[in-house]
User: Fold these one by one.
Assistant:
Number 1:
Amino acid sequence: MWAFIHKMGSPPWFFRFATAVIRWLLPIVLLALLAGSLWGLLYAPPDFRQGNSYRIIFIHVPSAVVALAGYYVMASAGLVSLVWKIKMADTAMRAVAPIGAALTFVALVTGAIWGKPTWGAWWVWDARITSMLILFFLYLGVMALFEAYDNKAAAAKACAVLSLVGTVNIPIIYKSVDWWYSLHQPASIKFSGETAIDASMLYPLLLMIAAFYGLFALLVLLNMRSELLATHRQSAWLRTELG
Amino acid sequence: MHPIRKQRLTIALLVVLLSSAAVGLVGYALRGNINLFYPPADIVAGKAPMDRPIRVGGMVVEGSIVRSGQDLTTHFDVTDYDGTVRVSYTGILPDLFAEGEGVVASGRLSADGSFSATEVLAKHDENYMPPEVAEALEGKGPDNRPYGKGGKS
């Protein structure tokens, strides 16, 4: 276990690891996304209240869930970078930020598109929606902060602190619908007790959530791999790696 | 663990802890403003301000919707089962607005305790099911569902 974690910090080893994982993860993720979309958009039944407009859930919920989880990935990389000063953790933090921002953006936009016909408004300054907007700005902030420094180590330190401070927002987003009166409905998928979503809609949703986790992992690895290609383009190990 | 790393780890965890505490206190102090709406019970108890626009949220009481014959004005009662507020609204209601369903109305309180809304939003609940399942549940009686009545409005 520790040997594996130590190896993750070595650029040549990680480059080989990422290349191998991407090769088998890519077809699995594409297949899962295709299957989940067809299942959710074509075969799942319409909702008794919303008809077909509820189907945006199959994009909205997976992107929101992975946007939240991705923030913890970024913050964990930030903690490792701050404490152990491992360069690979900086690379990981930098790779997650734009993907998390994109997922948060997708969740906000699909939510607005669903909100107009369902609630009657594109946007409401509701606790859930506002905290999600703050998450989007946190991701953008980490991206901008990386570019704001000439010194890479200083940039990584600043970004690590920002992403660690931002973790407070994640439980707020998650619990916002329970803590305050909000327009956004509470979670349909519950870890305890009866789920409020019918099994015929739940299974394609779970498949899409799994597919989005896979997509996130795939995109982060691709991002980290291209960052390694850019920073180590003069290195001998990369030349032998690429043949 | 190396003492310097241990120190850095402690500082990082303290940063997370203290910033969480700060945000938590701010959220606690502003909790009244973070709530999107007042429940009818608070309005009945006189806790809602009269002088500025507010929102009220709850369930539309079954059988309370009265539509005007002349214009788009609608009257309905909103309840949280502890209190009830009469709401009047002129305009187009959202598609999912129905008796027994959630609603959030923004507007002003009148001196007589009624609420004149300038905007009415439907609050959707977390229940998703196919129409056949909803009908089957409906057949068993109105009390089998967690919230309200499925809308054939």
Number 2:
Amino acid sequence: MLDRADAAALLLIAPTGGGKTLAGFLPTLVDLAEAPRDGLHTLYISPLKALAADIRRNLTTPVTEIGLPIRIEDRTGDTPASRKKRQRADPPHIMLTTPESLALLTSYEDAPRIFQGLKRVVVDEIHALADSKRGDQLMLALGRLQRLCPDLRRVGLSATVEDPAAIARQLARHPDPCDILMADPGPAPDIAMLTTAEPPPWSGGNAAYAIPAVLTAVKAHKTTLIFHNTRAQAEIFFHNLWLANDEGLPIGIHHGSLDRVQRERVEAAMVRGDLRAIVCTGSLDLGIDWGDVDLVIQIGAPKNVKRLVQRIGRANHRYNAPSKALLVPANRFEVVECHAALDAVRAGTLDGDPRGAGPRDVLCQHILITACAGPFDANALYDEVRTVGAYAGLSRAAFDACLDFCATGGYALRAYDQWQRLVQRPEDTWQLRDPRATRQIRMNIGTIQDTDTLKVRLRRSRGGKPLGEIEEGFAATLTPGDTFLIGGQIVRYEGLRDMTVEVSRNAAKKPKVATFLGTKFATSTQLSARVIEIFQQDDWSDLPGHTAEWLGLQRSRSQLPKPGRLLIESFPHDGREQTVFYGFAGRNGHQTLGLLLTKRMEEMGLDPLGFVATDYATLIWGLKRLQDPAPLFDLAALEDGMDTWLAGNAVMKRTFRASATIAGLIQRNTPSARKTGRQATFSSDILYDTLQKYDPNHLLLQITREEALRGLVDFGRIREMAERVAGRIDHLTLPRVSPLAAPMLLEMGRVPVKGAAEEKLLAEEAARLMETAGLAQITPPPSDKPKWRVGW
Amino acid sequence: MNCHNFSFCDAALKAMPSGALWWPAEELLCVSDLHLGKSERVARRSGQSLPPYETRDTLTRLGSDLDATNARKVICLGDSFDDLTAAQSLSEDERLWIARLQAGRHWIWIEGNHDPGPVEFAGEHLQQLTLQSLTFRHIAETCGQGEVSGHYHPKVRVATRGRLISRPAFLVDAARLILPAYGTYTGGLTSDAARLSQIMQPKALAILTGPRPTCVPMPR
């Protein structure tokens, strides 16, 4: 590390626990020890606030012991305003921060003074930032710093990744080279599937069957982390684990929806070694010191092999001991998935999709941040942006479109000349028209899309203790008296007061409503090929008996999907007609397939209500049964009117909402602003529909299409698939859900289809409500069939 | 067009899919809370530049409702403009557009809290108007009878089998009728809000807008 201290950019790849963070700071400590000086010397950036605080503690101890005159401070959203102010006036030698806090710092007018003399930047856990917009924002900020401090050296620290060169290209100033240092990967991890006497169920995600076996494993280890793919699953598992915890082992729960105080308490107890097990989600993935964790348990199939390996690498924090992990499939399909994932880990295959060009919504935000710091030269900014790898290919026209959007809104109808946000001064200098706009722009900094959440508290009469947060959409489905799980306890919904969900403790055995809505996990595209291979085996003696039996049952009741053919199963379930298309085309492929097929089903009057995509299949549900799948794949009909259909879909609207928020068209919904009612919020769906109608080429719609397509596949590939399977479709109509389809029914990430079916559902429910209220009346027979309309 | 027919204080009325109210016997179309010029006002006050197309969208929908009904009287039930400056800042195109819609019709602007006082458009400017058994005013009054108002932008949520449907809605009981907001950039207040539960009688109904306006007991 010291040998390469002068490299302009350096990427260090080492497994977790290899002491790479300290290595990243070594040149800084040497430099400051040899030539003490004032001012900011090194900036450290981590994806998590908790990690920044943790590194500060770990670094301060040796520095103080040696007696080095080095000031080390963190600066994140949790730092008190008074300290932040002081840090701006008198920056520490080493500042530890996050991409968002750094972006905020660069937006101040005195940024050149704050960063004066900055020598090094260390980006920790860069693999966790690399494939997200947070990474793009960070690299744009580094471009800015590099212009302020031309001799800036960049160091990236990463866990094992599939394509180190791609991360290196992101890290270095374009087109500078970036050296890559690979550390010894250490011993291979010890991963196994947990075997239990009790067979896992056909479907479901809570792995209740495995509770006794998990407890036994916990007892046999010092500290165990029990990872879940979703918060809801973590809550349910923790609840069940607690009920079975006869010995009263100290066990905690940790996920992103819990109150910060509660999370910090669990983290502190873990660092002290007070806890034997922590039930958690990805929120515990990075950062805090894993100390004595000697076992990692993954409940549910690992949706992403790369993340699994990185997670497992953290157990047994010592460099030379193999990490130990147990996979606990929640149902029998997941047994097959876990089996495939273990194969992939042994083969050393990591998954990951290549990332495309830098997203332009992030660029729009960057332009606004730049404007906050003072007047800027458009040519210089364009050159600076192109030193960022992801934006190296950005055309001047594309840049100018973003600048125009920031300045005027970028509408074909030039309506805001008088009120535009940026104004052009002589030459190519731009500045904010109204300097007060800085406040709003700064509040909107960041690219993380939080779903709107509401705080949950005990009722005021019960002390008003904060418990955590739930998604607003979930809160909307609650009626007083409903019970749900949060922080491992069952609470009763009492009502909504001042944008806070008020609850009381409830002794109910079983929560009535057990799910948060939750977002879809990014899944792997490489497991599907392994899974379909397993399906083709004549017998499954390498799988647990119960799962072999389950696959046999699928083979006898229906069939198993075969390569080169398309299996389709239709069956009634839950009062609706369900159809599963087993395309094994990866999640993006199936998401696209869902969009295309629901369009055809709407046209054919099958009243589709929604769909959900996994790596392996698309499930569509609706009001009418699919009789003949062949016309669904009629190529001409698939493509006709596709643009209109796609434009009206929920996938596009969600994407628009995210991009419009990042680009600064709509304001981030901060709870404090909502509470005071001072923030004007607009339905992003209505803004989207309006733009579609009157300004279809608007920059934000272009960005929305670009961004949505990252999560979809080229229609060309679906066309190929349709051609390939023509005449090779196996359609089975079953009396009930098949073994293989059962897990699909509980998948997250459902996409609603808003067509004729919604009107029918509404009419049906309205009739029922009126009947119940004794107000039933003779309604006139329906006239013409309602037409599809974008926007409903 | 699919309308929901209902009678209110001896008047036979139709709730239209768009949220307009049609009174065939009087050849009267009533719309509330157009909030024309909203994007201009937002830009002026906060610097946020929303797509500046909501005025033409609102006017387009109003135009097609006028065509469909061939209304001779039109009541804009207040908050027709997002504020008085917004009314003055409409583009020349948009002013001509309004004039075109007004041609040959008896047009009444009822004042709202956003647009108190007359605006410089043709037509009558009134605080409220009584026509047969109905009184049209912007904000519901405590002891309203046969009162048609707007102001609250009511919307209603219905949990159907597996889907929560939320739409702007008319609220109606024996004494009052509250119209949904007609303007394109208008949010809404759900019917379970305390204020709406307070002013509407226990047996109130809600008529959801949409391709086929649908009547349910008002959720509260």
Number 3:
Amino acid sequence: MQSLSSADFAPIPNSQEVHGISRPSLSYWQDAWIRLKANKRALMSLYIVIFLLLFTIVGPWIWRVSPAAQDLDQVSQPPGSPRVALIVDDYTPWFGEGNPLETGLRTFGDPTTQVVRLQWNALPGAAGHRIYRNLFPLGPERAYGIPIGEFFDNNTLFFEDRLDLKPQNYYYSVVALGQFGELLDSYELIEVDVKRVTTIAEALEQELVSHTSNFQIGDAIDMAWHPLGTDYLGRDMLARLMAGARVSLFIGIGAPFLFVLFGVMYGSIAGFLGGKIDQVMMRFADFVVALPFLLFMILFKIAFGVGPGESGVLPMLVALVILMWPATARLVRGQILLIREQGYISASQLLGAKTPYLILRHMIPNTLGVVLVTLTFAIPSAIFTEAFLSFIGMGVVPPTPSWGSMSNEGIKTMLTTPHELIFPAVIISITVLAFNLLGDGLRDALDARMRNQE
Amino acid sequence: MWLYTFKRLLQGVVTVWFIATATFIAMHNVPGDPLLNDRAMTPEIRANVEAKYGLDQPLATQYFIYLRNLAQGDFGISFTQENRQVNDIIREHFPVSAILGVLAVVFAAAGGVLWGALTAIYRNRLPDYIIMFFVILGISVPSFVVAALSQVSLVNLNSLFGTTVLPVAGWGTIFHMLVPAMVLGLGTMAYLTRLMRSSMLEIISSDFIRTAKSKGVPPARIFTKHQLRNAILPVVTVLGPAIAAITTGGFVVEIVFAVPGLGRFFVEAVQQLDYTVIMGTTVFYGAFLVFMVIVVDVLYGFIDPRMSMK
């Protein structure tokens, strides 16, 4: 043990520093903001949410393409596909004149997106012919593709294909038909590389060229630019994603905002009044919770009805509010019950404060942290619900785009043009993820009791 | 315990009555006419059909007839499918949805408990990060996207092996059920994993675990007897709502995988405005969900002895 000298027992000088406040005093919200800023994931999510809001609100001002405009020369084009087109003459019908010296299945003229002209010689033993088009070569199972024309005589040995042609390779087959229109075994196959073309009239109409500029048949011009490609009707994906964001985020943020507001009022009244009224009110909330959610979303949606020309956004909003308020109401009631017993409420009452004042001035502000967290978590679930309903065709009415209905359209062609599904799916996922992580961060920052263990 | 069960069942009956009433009110506000289709209908025929379905009665009478039939378990006759009882439709299609749902719940619960426990044990280490990455993915990717992507992978898998390893769509054998059940249970599994993780973390740092460790209980026994058993309780409480979420979430999976379940049938009935089928299915689902929540709550009383004391 150390020996002590008398110097160790000298009184410590009375310093002012000990009494000073080392850090500025922080309000609840300032403290929460500092905590949130320290949370990298939550901050990242906050930036994503801000970016999404900008994308939705400012986006359509920058990218001024109508989400409803159809570019039929570029249907289902993935992003970054070549968009050079040759200018050709207007379409004129063709009646099979060509060079009879050639044999076999052959094309006449250049195969273009305007028209592919096919000629062939009668197949041996055929009483007629059927023409097929395929995207893939003829496999061992002899898949010819889709039938695009058939002739039950041997006089017609030509065909014009103008059906939804895209600039890509096609495999055309001509197959012999028997007496009764049955398929025979003999066929011929040709691979055709279709070039993208457009006419002067179309180019002018789509404002790809101006009247004054100097161009002629055979010139190459650039088609309209679609940064994220086009959908199955040739509509610009970027413009549709922006328009869809308006619908999805309007429902996704508007509905939670409204039902949280209603839940706060309902819950605080029930919690404050207590007794019989509280019991009746909360029992009613229990009933609403018991309603099977998705079934009633659909029921309410058809009960409100969607008139012609309406988008079906409002019925969905109302249905969401009707079905989702009880969770907030329960939570707020629990909080109010806790706060009601606090000393400052009695003090305020003693000073003559009336019930509305107590609720508005003391109780609701003190539950705001919890409510904000609930709101943040309610947003992704509302976005999911909208996407889910639109996906099964019970949501917004076409042609109104929403991320869910875009996924629904994209899923039909996901094997050939996956971008039509990937873009809306990814943006839904990112949005939901961002709001979920932001909610986690807010919960950790705002509410010590709900703070999780991460 | 029995009194509690009885009270809960009584509450359940009242809840089902509320669901039935809400369904009735909602359906009677639907614009459009169930008898208005492309077949021309003379006023006489119309009156006959209305009399057959009781549509000529005042609304209050209709409501009481509806309640009386419900109490007898009779959901009525389909409007669009001639002479088909709604009961028959439910009997035919609900088992399919139920099997799919049960598989999905088993998958979700087992996976959730397992992954949640693993992440808690390997907290802030590689397995934790990997599992939590997939959990976040499971929470934020919509089920229809997962369903579509898994279908594409099935196609690729089958073409890789040259035979049908797992069928892409349809219904019949256990192989048809596997992938749809996994897709259906994925979101719930992610949710349960998070719940299990935080509950497990709380248990791991509690005093009785430290006591068990210090008195030399083998780690495996601590894990099964002390940690898992206690951490699992919050997971059991949310199983009731989870079953509800999974059963109704089946709509999309049933549509994408062409499963002949009740959810798909409900969507079709809504598109055709088949009143009795819509009402019957809604009330049936509602009653089923209320019942499931009661079952889970009562079971919870058996698992957690503290509950029955209250």
Number 4:
Amino acid sequence: MPGAKEVRSKIFSVKNTQKITSAMQMVAASKMRKAQERMEHSRPYTSAMLKLIGHIARAHLEYKHPYTVERPIKNVGYIIVSTDRGLCGGLNINLFKNVLTQISEYQSKGVESSVALLGSKACNFFSKFGLKTMAHVSGMGDDPKVENLIGAVRLMLQAYNKGEIDKLCIVYNKFVNTMVQTPVIEQIIPLIPNENSSVKDDYWDYIYEPDAEQLLNTIFSRYIESVVYQGVVENLASEQAARMVAMKAATDNAERLVDDLQLVYNKARQAGITQELTEIVSGAAAV
Amino acid sequence: MAEQKEEKNQQDKTIHLRIVSAEKYIFSDNVAQVNVEGVEGGIGIYPGHSPLLTFINSSNVVYVTPSGDKRLVNVYGGVLEVQPKSVTVLVDTAIRGEDIDESLALESKRQAEAKLAKGPKDQDYSAALAELSRALSKLHAVELTRKFGHR
């Protein structure tokens, strides 16, 4: 049985750790609220954009933009959104595992993959796998700006235009609620036609003012920007939520540990007292 | 049967208008008619319009509700998509006619004019020009809203 003194110092250290985790929990909770707000602000724009893109993908365009033409897939590009910091449970690992499963599935069919990594956790993880890394961005902070992301995205688009990749997907954690964040892999280009829409699959085309090429280029670049930005802010909200939950669990565990240790400490203390008493009594008896 | 037909008629007479800015949903409902200033000129949209795509700089989206009420939303920078049954306005910023701060718009107009007075050599000349057109369009929006009787 350990001595009372050792147990007491252990309790002290666990309590210190608990203070840190509970502080982190509170910080994550307040950051999550902000991140959630940011995410909800940009959601309507992105979903309206997706609808518009779904319509465009259904039209028979006079101007064949590369993003609307499906090519046989030989190389897939992924934009992988991860967090910059750890201590957020299995959030990143679950996401990475999902991507790796898909990548190895493609690999068995002879399809190569290239990645663009956002967030330092993805950079650390994927450097081990020898995938072709086109770009990486880290240190996006709590308020990501489109300008910081756009460089990496543009590189992927250039690769698509040159034919180095034939499909571009974005991978991120979708924020469902505080307890649930689901990893998703969404195709960005080529554009996916909107399935459940009132727009018919007839042979129709838009009237363009001023001209098709200029309009479509602008719309597509806005579309990609907004989808990537949405992915990043969703992932950020997921990160804070996951961290909050993980830190809550850690705080609760520490609480339980302290309780157990307290019991051990009390027993050790009592044993010490009993021993001392026995010593005194037997000493008195000997005199 | 007659009721169904009535309902269908009602549907044919309206078009779904959706105005979304980068921050939030401004408007989403069925309307009878929409008027927009595109980059190439004004467009009047009734239900059943052919598909159309165009840019919007700074413009007032005027819509008529099925009950005949006229309202407007002042928008800036974006695209307009028309489908036979829906109109989508995707813009950077948008504000309802009723919510525009007139004194603020007047102030920014004055500032822009002061900058423009320095002549075209000034560095922020084009920015000031954009600022001025934005302020003017807002003031126009205020005027129109007043004419529609919502201020």
